[in-house]
């Protein structure tokens, strides 16, 4: 049973569809240029290549823009993805994360942490996340990836890096716990479909393999339990 | 009666407070708007006891162990004292009570309320109440007659009423107060007080005086006042003996009068000038406790009331007191002085406003609040510490002692303190480095500019300086131990300059880390003479400057050589350097009423040193001070005042200052500010750091730079018209630096400049279209005046298409005028381009623009012309033809049969770098190898005198690499000019001959071309012909004239000629072109098959002729147009 992921990363819908689960499910991704996704979809029969790698999600996250303060001077650079710069020493400029990290590693810039990467704001989000049963909106669709990337490579530019790391991990844990819980109730209540809002790509990605495999497994087991039943006929859960 | 004023302490949160002593005098009890009553054992008690009585407490009274409070829950409550246990509610009102008080024995409580009522309640039995109705507005305060017969109350309706308690009737009433609608709006709380003991007198604070009324007769027997008390009195309190009366009020003053002698025996001032709203005497009579609207408590101690004898006092007091006051005012070194000085600046006229606003901590409040808070933030935030302010005041003090008008004349005449009520001097602001945060901070920015950041650390562990460069390519970051205690810094691409003030042992030092030096010694240090301190410093390109306390400016080379030294007209405030420019701001005079009087000097330290701005006053916003001074990245002086207004020098408007931005408008909160770190003109950026709730950023976390846009404060920028006007003038203003840069020998970004010009013309066209739409034709014409000639043509087209023929006609006149003007300018410009410095934008650049667009334009024009010819509008055609002729002497005509013949010539012409066909500027591109060529052509062009417009243009921009602003090879350009003018001078008389000589030397291919080109460019005008003829006579008259002067002189003379004469010259000029055409025909007939060289020669001539011929049809018309003028 595949997961429908509508590209806005706001909702995730589980489908438990009768019959041929492979053809009934659709996998929609609005994130462009990800061969891995289509690839994995085509080869869903093989669980090993079925899913996206976390590193691929991270790759997508690296397209996010982040402010840096360069310490060099460079005119506008023209890239396929768009124009960047001009770079003036001491003047903040927006660049993609991949470039920011590259420059940072070469000590060519300081990274200005995104606005949400702030202890107070994250604490608020954490409290909200703990209070609500549903998923709350996250500050960035790639909050986990960005936190990891920025803290690993530019922790010296981020005040209270350790606290932020802990807070983001807390938020992540809370959300993953919620996700497991909802998957659990989804299966135990034998629902045919469920919708989850405000999930991020990375979160969907972590649960996908396990959920799909187990649903597949259960499907097989159940069809074996009822040897007489037709594959095309609806299951009774 | 000398007393000691104890320092203020925090008592309650901000807001109204009240305070009293307990019966024994052991405790101070206070209440505040935080709703707490606090019991303090002394003023230093850090562990007070708090009793919460409600959301807000308005007033309290304490007697016999009972604490009565007026709280915001509309009740008057009793608590036990000192335990603070609730003891019931005494009475209720329909709205909040405003004041409560006990009678002398503590058996009754009187309470006034905002519901206009006064109640008297028995403490033992709260059911026994007496209600006094009669006030028409909230009651301000109540007080008991010590004999319990009467009760006095003051109300917002302006009346003070004395009630007979038993009869519950009004005994008397005085309408002496100002009417208001609510207690919160009342200027004075009007806390009345009845003299203890016999209760002979009732003291009523009325504005800034205290009225004393006699009991029984209720006559106004006397008034207590003090000249220094100019603001409303909030509260009065009698000393327990009844001999002294204390008063406190708006502005934080505290005054004690001896009632018998009616003399003021004590004056004090709340240290921050906050409004005193609660006041009480210690039972022993030697202390006064007071509280202010900021929630703090204060104490006056050592009031020796008991020992003093009124009689002796009356005689002794004035002299000694006055003397003491003077001492106080001028010599005593404490902050109070400053506060007094500042609050004294409030003229009486402002007082009415003062009361309401008081206590409001924002610096936007008018009048008193403003001045006072200004003082506060001056010393808190802006590195103008009290020291400097004191200094200033001391100085005034000295002046006064020396007999100045403020005090001395009055002193002998009046025994009391003399009063000066005119404008008061402002403490001069202290010298500062722009881009630094206050010096008292342990971690501070010593400099943040476009090159780097210098941070200073000065805490227990470390005294160090960090230098960091925005561009790591300049230099790596540096960490220095600051053993000398440097307090000022500047950083440039070449060096870091540091300076420290002198100490007892060490002289003031200037240290320079010249990191860009190529030798191994990267540092130098200079000791200043004894007693001279560095006050401000700055770095330029190749020099460093330090302004000292001896009002001197010392210049050093960047390597450490002492250079020029000169005196400054006043104490320096700030300095800035950029390239060769030095900008100094100093105190021009004493400012008054919060304004600073600053002067500014701008010096050019280039080869030709000169002063550009000669100490003119620096415009600042009202009541503001300078907060940033510097240059834009392009080198235009710029500064910012404390009101956040950014002003930039407008060189094209006689070095005036134009406000280009108000950073406060972009602030979200009132106390937010932008701390500016840099100004850029291209792109238009104001780089600054947003600071929440402060004027400057902390060093950690590292602040991020934001960018603000500029906006000229034009009117009605919400409308489309206003917006476009703003954009246009901003663009014009921000383009000034191009002409400045090119005139001072820097390379400019031509592309950006032409883009800016294009944008301006576009804006003008848009405005033109808008005005057209609105049927504002006059405005259209005005706009056209601003346009370049090219844009005017477009405008004409627009006008004629939208069927505004009258407008189109007027526009064409303008176009004509512009063309003429341009022609004339070209003469002048080419000749004196070396003299020209900071000419207006319209003149210089507009011309350049014409060159660039000539071809394009001429085509358009032609189309238009044809069109109009068809329509048969003669006048216009003539004008247009005239234009074209003057402007585009070699218009390419599609219909011209000779067109193909043009080509070889134009190719040949390309050899000449100075040929202006496409764009005058790009022709200047050839590098060094062609220098000889350049010189050659230059001389010949010059020899041909004023014909070519190109020579001037090229002179202006000698071939140089298009790099970021760097001084170009000046030697070269001057050399060129010199050669040019010299040869021209020398050979002027035989210029034509020599040119012909050159033409006859076919071996040198490029030589003919300059001549031809020069001729090609433009047919000779009447003036030129005239000049050729008359040059000799001019030279004979004034043989010492330079080439430029000759032209000028000639133009002058030509203008004097009568219209007919001039016309005849013009006709002759045209006649010549016809001759040339004839010549061409003849030559063509015979010239076939000649030698190659000859051929080239002929062709050259041909081209001239062709072009001229092509103009023939219009020549008559142009003559007509000329005549018309």
UniProtKB/TrEMBL annotation, chain A:
The keyword ATP-binding does not apply. GO terms for biological process: DNA replication; double-strand break repair via break-induced replication. It comes from the Eukaryota. Residues 53-112 form the DNA replication complex GINS protein PSF2 N-terminal domain. Keywords: DNA replication, Nucleus. Residues 116-218 form the GINS subunit domain. One of its GO terms (cellular component) is GINS complex. It is found in: Nucleus. InterPro entries: GINS_A (IPR021151), GINS_bundle-like_dom_sf (IPR036224), GINS_Psf2 (IPR007257), PSF2_N (IPR056784). Its main location: nucleus. CDD domains: GINS_A_psf2 (cd11712), GINS_B_Psf2 (cd21694). Pfam families: PSF2_N, Sld5. Required for correct functioning of the GINS complex, a complex that plays an essential role in the initiation of DNA replication, and progression of DNA replication forks. GINS complex is a core component of CDC45-MCM-GINS (CMG) helicase, the molecular machine that unwinds template DNA during replication, and around which the replisome is built. Belongs to the GINS2/PSF2 family. This is GINS complex subunit 2. It comes from Myripristis murdjan. The gene is GINS2.
């Amino acid at each position: 049973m595949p997961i429908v992921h509508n590209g806005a990363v706001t909702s995730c819908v589980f489908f438990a569809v009768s019959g041929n689960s492979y053809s009934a499910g659709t996998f929609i991704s609005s994130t462009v240029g990800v061969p891995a996704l289509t690839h994995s979809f085509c080869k869903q029969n093989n669980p090993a290549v079925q899913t996206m790698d976390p590193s691929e999600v991270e790759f997508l996250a690296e397209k996010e823009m982040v402010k840096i303060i360069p310490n060099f001077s460079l005119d506008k650079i023209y890239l396929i993805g768009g124009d960047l710069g001009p770079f003036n020493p001491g003047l903040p400029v927006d660049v993609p994360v991949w470039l920011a990290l590259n420059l940072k590693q070469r000590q060519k810039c300081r990274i200005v942490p995104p606005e949400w990467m702030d202890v107070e704001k994250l604490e608020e989000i954490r409290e909200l996340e703990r209070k609500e049963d549903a998923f709350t909106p996250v500050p960035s669709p790639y909050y986990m990836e960005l936190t990891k990337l920025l803290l690993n490579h530019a922790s010296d530019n981020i005040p209270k890096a350790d606290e932020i790391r802990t807070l983001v991990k807390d938020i992540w844990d809370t959300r993953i716990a919620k996700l497991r819980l909802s998957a659990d109730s989804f299966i135990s209540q034998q629902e045919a479909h469920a919708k989850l809002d405000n999930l991020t790509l990375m979160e969907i990605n972590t649960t996908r393999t396990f959920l799909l495999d187990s649903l597949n497994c259960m499907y097989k087991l159940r069809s074996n339990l009822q040897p007489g039943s037709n594959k095309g006929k609806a299951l009774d859960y | 009666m000398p007393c000691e004023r104890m320092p203020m302490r925090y008592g309650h949160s901000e807001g109204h407070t009240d305070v009293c002593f307990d019966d024994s005098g052991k405790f101070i009890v206070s209440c505040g708007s935080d709703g707490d009553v606090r019991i303090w054992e002394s003023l230093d008690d850090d562990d007070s006891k708090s009793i919460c009585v409600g959301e807000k407490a308005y007033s309290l009274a304490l007697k016999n162990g009972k604490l009565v409070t007026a709280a915001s829950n509309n009740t008057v409550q009793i608590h036990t004292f000192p335990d603070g246990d609730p003891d019931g509610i005494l009475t209720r009102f329909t709205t909040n009570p405003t004041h409560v008080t006990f009678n002398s024995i503590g058996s009754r409580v009187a309470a006034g309320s905002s519901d206009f009522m006064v109640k008297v309640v028995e403490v033992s039995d709260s059911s026994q109440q007496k209600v006094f109705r009669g006030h028409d507005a909230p009651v301000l305060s109540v007080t008991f007659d010590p004999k319990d017969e009467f009760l006095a109350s003051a109300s917002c309706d302006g009346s003070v009423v004395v009630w007979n308690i038993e009869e519950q009737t009004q005994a008397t009433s005085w309408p002496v107060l100002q009417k208001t609608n609510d207690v919160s709006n009342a200027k004075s709380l009007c806390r009345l007080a009845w003299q203890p003991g016999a209760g002979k007198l009732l003291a009523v604070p009325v504005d800034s005086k205290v009225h004393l009324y006699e009991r029984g007769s209720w006559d106004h027997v006397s008034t207590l006042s003090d000249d220094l008390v100019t603001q409303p009195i909030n509260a009065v309190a009698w000393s327990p003996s009844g001999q002294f009366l204390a008063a406190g009020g708006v502005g934080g003053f505290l005054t004690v009068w001896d009632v018998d002698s009616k003399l003021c025996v004590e004056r004090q001032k709340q240290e921050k000038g906050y409004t005193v709203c609660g006041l009480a005497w210690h039972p022993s009579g030697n202390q006064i406790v007071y509280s202010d609207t900021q929630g703090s408590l204060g104490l006056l101690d050592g009031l020796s009331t008991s020992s003093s004898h009124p009689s002796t006092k009356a005689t002794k007091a004035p002299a000694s007191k006055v003397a003491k006051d003077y001492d106080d005012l001028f010599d005593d070194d404490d902050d109070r002085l400053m506060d007094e000085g500042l609050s004294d600046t409030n003229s009486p006229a402002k007082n009415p406003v003062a009361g309401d606003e008081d206590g409001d901590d924002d610096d936007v409040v008018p009048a008193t609040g403003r001045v006072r808070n200004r003082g506060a933030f001056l010393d808190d935030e802006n590195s103008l510490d009290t020291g400097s302010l004191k200094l200033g005041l001391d100085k005034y003090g000295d002046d006064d002692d020396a007999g100045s008008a403020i005090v001395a004349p009055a002193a002998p005449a009046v025994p009391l303190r003399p009063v000066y009520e005119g404008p008061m001097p402002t403490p001069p602001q202290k010298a500062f480095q722009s881009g630094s945060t206050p010096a008292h901070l342990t971690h501070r920015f010593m400099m943040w500019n476009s090159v780097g950041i210098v941070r200073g650390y000065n805490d227990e562990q470390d005294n160090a300086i960090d230098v960091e460069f925005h561009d790591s390519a300049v230099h790596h970051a540096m960490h220095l131990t600051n053993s000398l205690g440097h307090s000022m810094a500047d950083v440039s691409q070449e060096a870091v300059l540091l300076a420290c003030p002198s100490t007892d042992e060490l002289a003031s030092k200037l240290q320079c880390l010249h990191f860009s030096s190529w030798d191994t010694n990267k540092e130098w240090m200079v000791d200043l003479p004894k007693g001279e301190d560095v006050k401000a410093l700055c770095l330029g390109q190749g020099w460093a400057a330090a302004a000292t306390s001896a009002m001197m400016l010392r210049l050093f080379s960047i390597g450490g050589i002492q250079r020029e030294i000169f005196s400054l007209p006043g104490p320096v405030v700030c300095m800035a350097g950029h390239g060769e420019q030095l900008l100094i701001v100093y105190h021009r005079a004493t400012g008054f009423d919060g304004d600073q009087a600053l002067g500014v000097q701008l010096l050019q330290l280039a080869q030709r040193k000169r002063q550009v701005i000669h100490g003119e006053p620096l415009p600042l916003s009202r009541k503001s001070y300078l907060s940033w001074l510097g240059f834009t990245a392009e080198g235009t002086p710029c500064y910012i005042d404390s009101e956040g207004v950014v002003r930039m020098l407008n060189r094209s408007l006689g070095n005036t200052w134009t406000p280009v931005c108000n950073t406060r408008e972009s602030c979200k909160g009132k106390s937010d500010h932008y701390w500016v770190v840099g100004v850029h003109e291209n792109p238009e950026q104001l780089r600054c750091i947003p600071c929440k709730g402060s004027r400057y950023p902390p060093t950690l976390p590292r602040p991020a730079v934001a960018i603000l846009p500029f906006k000229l404060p034009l009117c009605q920028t919400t409308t489309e018209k206003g917006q476009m006007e703003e954009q246009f003038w901003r663009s014009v203003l921000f383009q000034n630096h191009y002409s400045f840069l090119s005139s001072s020998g820097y390379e400019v970004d031509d592309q950006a400049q032409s883009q800016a010009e294009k944008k301006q013309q576009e804006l003008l066209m848009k405005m033109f279209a808008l005005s057209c739409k609105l049927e504002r034709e006059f405005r259209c014409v005005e706009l056209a005046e601003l346009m370049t000639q090219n844009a005017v043509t477009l405008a004409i087209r627009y006008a004629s298409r939208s069927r505004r023929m009258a407008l189109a006609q007027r526009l064409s006149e303008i176009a004509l005028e512009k063309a003429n003007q341009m022609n004339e300018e070209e003469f002048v410009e080419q000749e004196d381009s070396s003299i020209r410095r900071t000419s207006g934008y319209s003149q210089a650049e507009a011309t350049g623009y014409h060159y660039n667009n000539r071809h394009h334009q001429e085509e358009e024009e032609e189309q238009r012309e044809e069109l109009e010819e068809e329509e048969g509008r003669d006048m216009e055609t003539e004008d247009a033809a005239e234009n074209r002729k003057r402007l585009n002497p070699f218009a390419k005509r599609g219909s011209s049969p000779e067109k193909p013949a043009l080509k070889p010539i134009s190719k040949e012409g390309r050899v000449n770098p100075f040929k202006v066909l496409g764009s005058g500027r790009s022709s200047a591109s050839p590098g060094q190898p062609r220098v000889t060529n350049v010189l050659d052509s230059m001389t010949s062009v010059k020899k041909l005198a004023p014909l070519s417009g190109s020579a001037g243009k090229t002179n202006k921009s000698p071939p140089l690499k298009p790099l970021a602003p760097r001084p170009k090879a000046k030697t070269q350009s001057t050399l060129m000019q010199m050669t040019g003018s010299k040869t021209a001078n020398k050979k002027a008389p035989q210029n034509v001959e020599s040119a012909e000589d050159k033409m006859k030397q076919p071996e040198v291919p490029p030589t003919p071309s300059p001549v031809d080109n020069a001729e090609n460019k433009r047919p000779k005008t009447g003036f030129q012909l005239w000049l050729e003829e008359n040059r000799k006579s001019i030279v004979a008259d004034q043989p010492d004239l330079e080439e430029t002067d000759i032209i000028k002189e000639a133009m002058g003379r030509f203008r004097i000629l009568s219209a007919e004469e001039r016309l005849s010259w013009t006709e002759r000029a045209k006649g010549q072109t016809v001759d040339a055409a004839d010549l061409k025909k003849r030559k063509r007939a015979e010239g076939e098959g000649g030698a190659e060289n000859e051929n080239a020669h002929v062709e050259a001539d041909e081209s001239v002729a062709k072009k001229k011929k092509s103009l023939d049809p219009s020549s008559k018309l142009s003559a007509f147009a000329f005549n018309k003028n």
